[in-house]
Amino acid sequence: MKGFGARLRELFGRPARDEQFFAELGDILLEADLGPAATDRLLEGLRKQVGSAQDRDSFLAALKGLLAASLRFEALDLVPGSPNLLLVLGVNGVGKTTTIAKLAAWYRRRGSQVLLAAGDTFRAAAIDQLALWGERLEVPVVRQAPGADPGAVIFDAIASARARGADLVLADTAGRLHNKTQLMKELGKIDKIIRARLEPRAAYRKVLVIDATTGQNAVRQAEAFQQAVGVDSVILAKYDSTGKGGAVVSLCRDLGLPISFVGTGEKLEDLELFDAGRFLDALVARE
Ligand SMILES: Nc1nc2c(ncn2[C@@H]2O[C@H](COP(=O)(O)OP(=O)(O)OP(=O)(O)O)[C@@H](O)[C@H]2O)c(=O)[nH]1
Ligand SMILES: [Mg+2]
Asked: Cα–Cα distance between 105 and 107 in angstroms, integer?
């Protein structure tokens, strides 16, 4: 099947701007995972611009403009001189641990001293996976035995960061299904421990990793994490593996969440700051 951009260009190239046109446009937007609320609002916005945006390119530009208005970028800046912390959350397998390794490399390139906290104590393999990244990156990893309290691991990691003068703790957490209440509650406890340990002026962000291939389910996940512990920022992983990615628009618009980074592959350097313009250009370029 043709990609999002190809279908848009084909549709916008036709002269008609009738009900059939808007119905087809609605289908294309929904199939790109924009969700019903965002789709309705975009269609409404575009109907208003039919007078001024007639030809294919101006219609495409109008659509991009409306999409861009929904998207928000947030830089995860650190406060110098004290440990800052990014608590990385998400459902199973979305790319949390890999994203932590990428973030470690990213911040280190910018002069930060990074420390990893093996807060996914569920499986020994999860601790080992993070430890291996730590070795490769030459970044210290604070870990405890499998089954340990993740809050205690992160507590230790903050103390260790302070002792070493590290300015960033990247804390891993176990993947959890968003409908598992007990596990979601555990995040609240971890959050309290972090708040009690970090200096009030430090940057502390709860970062939700979303798998770009999961579509509208990402919105449901974000809502659940939002309710359980609060989410400050979203990282969109696996953006290289999907022709869609429209769920981001719903995340930003319906939940008011900003996007900080986009993961574009499995390698350490495959992490970019989220750029709404570039993101939309890529979305619309999909053949
Ligand atoms: N193509 C692609 N693959 C990615 C990206 N980020 C992560 N992955 C892959 O996704 C898989 C899962 O990554 P992990 O980092 O282990 O995911 P996780 O969320 O920590 O998983 P759990 O700890 O089991 O919940 C691995 O094979 C990663 O290489 C990305 O941006 N692009
Ligand atoms: Mg993991």
From this structure: 6
Query: How far apart, in whole angstroms, are the C-alpha atoms of residue 32 and residue 19?
Result: 20
- Determine the 3-state secondary structure of 63 from DSSP: helix
**162 assigned to some structural domain:** yes
How far CA 41 is from CA of 64, 65, 137, 138, in Å, comes to: 13, 13, 45, 48
pLDDT digits (tens, 9 = 90+) for 229-245: 999 999 999 988 776 67
pLDDT tens per residue across span 119-134: 999 999 999 999 999 9
Q: Is residue 230 within 6 Å of ligand 1 at its C-beta?
A: no
Q: How far apart are CA 27 and CA 137, in angstroms?
A: 45
Range of the domain at 22: 4-70
Are 133 and 269 part of one and the same domain? Answer: yes
Closest Cα to atom 22, ligand 1: which residue?
93
Statement to judge: residues 136 and 263 lie in one domain: yes
Q: How far apart are CA 141 and CA 139, in angstroms?
A: 7
For residues 56-70, average pLDDT:
90
Please check whether residues 231 and 89 belong to one and the same domain. yes
**215 C-beta closer than 6 A to ligand 1:** no
Which ligand 1 atom lies nearest to the CA of residue 262?
31
- Residue 159 pairs in a beta bridge with none
Which run of H or E residues covers position 84?
A: strand 84-89
Q: Is residue 228 part of a domain?
A: yes
**What does the pLDDT look like over 150-162, one tens digit per residue?**
999 999 999 999 9
Last residue of a domain, one of 43, 70, 97: 70
Indicate if the alpha-carbon torsion angle 51, 23, 13, 57 is positive or negative. Answer: positive
pTM, two decimal places? 0.92
Number of domains comprising the chain: 2
Residue 126 in contact with ligand 1 by CB distance below 6 A: yes
